[in-house]
């Protein structure tokens, strides 16, 4: 799998970071969420997850996006947290923008920097 996990250095109890590399499919993203839930990495203290898509080759279309958002909406523990998405590619940023404006049950927002994503999760 091309997704790596780490806790934020300053806010390890509140923020989990997922770094995406190489080619990443919708199925891999869903499998990654399942892994985080099964292992308890999404604990009750986690306020948000930063999904760093910078430099990855996201293999997603609108059908895959709907599959992913439908999955996220079914998981209470994922609906309660903020999902920040760091993007550096116009083809990738379209999905968190759609998520922010169309999926009101989820807290999704695109960012271009880690610092801005952290600020949104912690302070807003």
Short description, anyone?
This protein is an alpha/beta fold and 124 residues long.
Topology (SSEs and partners):
Blueprint: E1 3-7, E2 15-20, E3 23-25, H1 26-38, E4 48-52, E5 57-59, H2 62-74, H3 76-79, E6 82-86, H4 90-102, E7 107-111, H5 114-123
Parallel strand pairs: 2-4, 3-5, 4-6, 6-7
Antiparallel strand pairs: 1-2
Question: How many structural domains can be distinguished in the coordinates?
Answer: 1
- What is the percentage of strand-forming residues? 25-35%
End-to-end distance: 32 Å
CATH T-level fold name? Transcription Regulator spoIIAA
Keywords:
single chain, 124 residues, alpha/beta, Transcription Regulator spoIIAA, five-stranded mixed sheet, 5 helices, 7 strands
General description of the model:
The protein has five helices and seven strands, in the order βββαββααβαβα. It is of the alpha/beta class. The chain has one domain: 2-Layer Sandwich (Transcription Regulator spoIIAA). The strands form two sheets. The protein has a five-stranded mixed beta sheet with strand order 1-2-4-6-7, sandwiched between helices. It has a two-stranded parallel ribbon with strand order 3-5. Helix 1 runs parallel beside helix 2 (62-74).
């Amino acid at each position: 799998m091309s997704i790596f996990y780490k806790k934020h250095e300053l806010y390890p109890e509140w923020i989990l970071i997922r770094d995406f590399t190489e080619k990443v499919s919708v199925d891999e993203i869903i499998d990654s969420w399942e892994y985080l839930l099964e292992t308890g990495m999404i604990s009750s203290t986690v306020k948000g997850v930063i999904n760093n898509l910078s430099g990855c080759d996201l293999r997603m279309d609108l059908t895959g996006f709907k599959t992913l958002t439908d999955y996220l909406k079914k998981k209470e523990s994922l609906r309660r947290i903020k999902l920040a998405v760091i993007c550096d590619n116009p083809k990738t940023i379209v999905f968190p923008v759609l998520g922010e404006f169309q999926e009101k049950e989820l807290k999704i927002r695109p960012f271009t920097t880690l610092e801005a994503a952290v600020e949104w999760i912690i302070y807003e």
